[in-house]
Amino acid sequence: MHHLKGHINITHLKGAFEDRQDIHLVMDLCEGGELFDRIVEKERYTEKDAAALIRTIVSCVAHCHSMGVIHRDLKPENFLLDSKKDDANLKCTDFGLSVFYKPGQKFNEVVGSAYYVAPEVLRRNYGPECDIWSCGVILYILLSGVPPFWGETEQQVFDAIVKGVYDITDSPWDKISDEAKDCVKRMLEKKPEKRATAQEILQHPWMKENGVASDKPIGDVVLNRLNNFAKMNKMKKQAMRIIANAMPADEIAGLEAIFKAIDTDNSGTITAEELNATLEKKGNNIPKDQLEQLLKLVDVDSSGVIDYDEFLAATMSLHQLNKEENLRKAFEHFDEDGSGSITKDELRKALAASGTAADLSETELDAIIADADKDGDGLIDYEEFVAMMMDTEEKKVPQVKKAKTNVNPYKAGHSTFSV
Description:
- The chain is mainly α and 419 residues long.
- The protein has 2 domains: 13-218, Transferase(Phosphotransferase), domain 1, CATH 1.10.510; 221-390, Recoverin, domain 1 (Orthogonal Bundle).
- It is 42% helix and 8% strand.
- The chain has helices at residues 35-42, 47-66, 119-122, 129-144, 154-163, 178-187, 198-202, 221-230, 234-245, 253-262, 272-281, 288-298, 308-315, 324-334, 344-353, 362-372, 382-390; strands spanning 13-18, 23-27, 69-70, 79-81, 90-92, 99-100, 111-113, 269-270, 306-307, 341-342, 380-381, 416-418.
- It has a two-stranded antiparallel ribbon. The protein has a two-stranded antiparallel sheet with strand order 3-6. A two-stranded antiparallel ribbon has the order 4-5.
- It is elongated and about 75 Å long.
C-alpha cells in the first residue's frame, strides 16, 4: 500500500501503531460502504454506469501492473465508496493477497475468491493477466446482475471457470450493445496470453463512450517518474536522494523489487540496455538517443549508469515525501549553518560535495534559488523548500490525522481463499 500510494482510487495507509495487544492500521475513511452493496441495491447498472465503474477499476489495475504488483483478489467487495453520494469515488482495497512480480514471472499459489478467480490460477500457472479476468467477471455482473460462472458448490464454480463457457445471448444480454459484449469477451478470454491488458481495455471503444476516457494511452508509472525526475533541478534531485536514503525498508520494498527486475545482471546498477529491455517488455519503445539522454539526466553522479539510490530518488512517489522528519533532514543537508534558510553559497557547497555541481553555472544557481524563493529575499526557508519538494504552493507540512475505520464482514459465498 505504501508502494501504490498516490492513485486517487487506491486506499492508502496513513500509519501503523502498536500497543500491548494489537497493531492498528489507520487508513482513509470510506463511508459509502462496498461496491457490492450498491450493486445489490441497484440490481443492474446501465451500460454508462458500468463503463464508468469498470474504467475506474481497470485504471487501478493498470496502476498496479505498471508498478509491478498483482492484486490477486479483485471483487466488488474489495472496492469501497468514499461517501454515500451517487458520485462517490471508488477505492480499491484489501491487498492482503497482492504480490510483487517481475515481467514474465509465473505464480502457482491458488488464491482469490471463488466467482472471480481466473482459470490459469486454478491451473497454478499465472501472471498479472488474472486481474483482468476478475475485472471481466465484475463487468459481467454489473451488466447482468449475476456472475458468469455458477455452481452449487465451490468446486462446481471452479469447474465452470476452467471450462470458460458463459452466456451473453439470453436476457438481459439481448438488450446490451455489441461493444459492451466485446469488452466482456476480451477480458474473459480463457488464454491469458490472448487476454486484453489493462491498457488495451482502457482504449476499448466502449470504454470511451461519450468521450469520457482519453484517447491517449496511460504511460508507464516508473517511466513517467524517471522523466519527471530528469526535469528537476539539481537541488531537488539531491534532496530526493537524501529522502530516499531515509525511507524505511517496508516503504521502498516495491521500488527495490522493480529495481532488481530491471537489473538483470545483478550488478547493483541499471544500464541503458537493461532499462530499454524492460520498457520493451511493457510495450514502451523509446529511441536510443532519447533513452540515453534520460539515463544521463537521472544519473546524478555521472557514473554512466543508474545506481540504486538514484533509482529510488527518481521513482519515489511525491506522496512518500509526506513525512516532516525526511523533509527536515533534506533541508538541513543544505542549511549548513542551521540558520533556517539556505543561501546561494550553501547550495553551491552542498551540490559540490555531492558531485553534482561540476558544471553548475551561477545562472543555474540563481534560477534554482528564484524557483523556490517565493518571498524574494534571496534565500530558501523551510516552508519554501517544502513547497518546492511537494510541487505545491501549500506552506504547511501535511499532518497525519486520526481516522476511524469501518469493518465490513465478507459476504457469504464471496470469501477470499488461499491454498
